[in-house]
Structure formats: C-alpha cells, structure tokens
Design goal:
The protein is of the alpha+beta class. The protein has one domain: Lrp/AsnC effector binding domain/regulation of amino acid metabolism (RAM) domain (Alpha-Beta Plaits). A 4-stranded antiparallel sheet has the order 2-3-1-4.
C-alpha cells in the first residue's frame, strides 16, 4: 500500500456538521476504508488547515477516488500528497 497525506479544510457546512455530530470524524474513516483506503493517523491542526490524515491506499487511482468522493459532499476541501518512504528515497539517491 502506498502512503498519502490528506490535508483538509472544513467548509462552513463541515463546521456545522461537526458541531452537531463530532463523531462524524470517525465515521468518515469507515467511509475511507469502504473505498479501499485505511486511515493510519489523524490530527487536528491549528492554522490554515483543520486536519492532516495519513492514509494508505493501493494506488493513485484509489486515493484520487477517496479524495473526490469526500470533497463532493461539500463539507471539506482536500489536498492530497503522495509520500515516499524515507529509506526508499535514500536508496534511490545512492
């Protein structure tokens, strides 16, 4: 499985949803799994973004589907970044 970082910002609708149902955050993790991914780590951050999620998925097509499907709900805007294992990166430089 490949690793991806999803950096997200809530929309006004997303803020309203979480205010009414804070557990929705964990429910979305189940949606990610149903689409073929796995949330490995999840953080709330302060600043211009609201969440950083580390997600594993089998390939770029799967993570693209996950990002688009989640964003299409209108509650979040997502930036998706592929990650390289640090040891694999170092090996590629040798």
């Amino acid at each position: 499985m490949a690793t991806y970082i999803l950096i997200s910002r809530l929309t006004d609708e997303g803020c309203a949803t979480l205010t009414k149902n804070p557990d929705r955050i964990k429910e979305v993790n189940k949606d990610v799994e149903a689409m073929g991914g796995k949330v490995v780590a999840q953080y709330v951050v302060l600043g211009p973004y609201d969440f950083i999620n580390v997600v594993e998925a089998p390939d770029n097509a799967t993570i693209a589907k996950i990002s688009v499907q989640l964003a299409s709900r209108g509650t979040v805007r997502i930036e998706t970044h592929p990650c390289l294992d640090i040891d694999e990166f170092i090996a590629s430089l040798k």
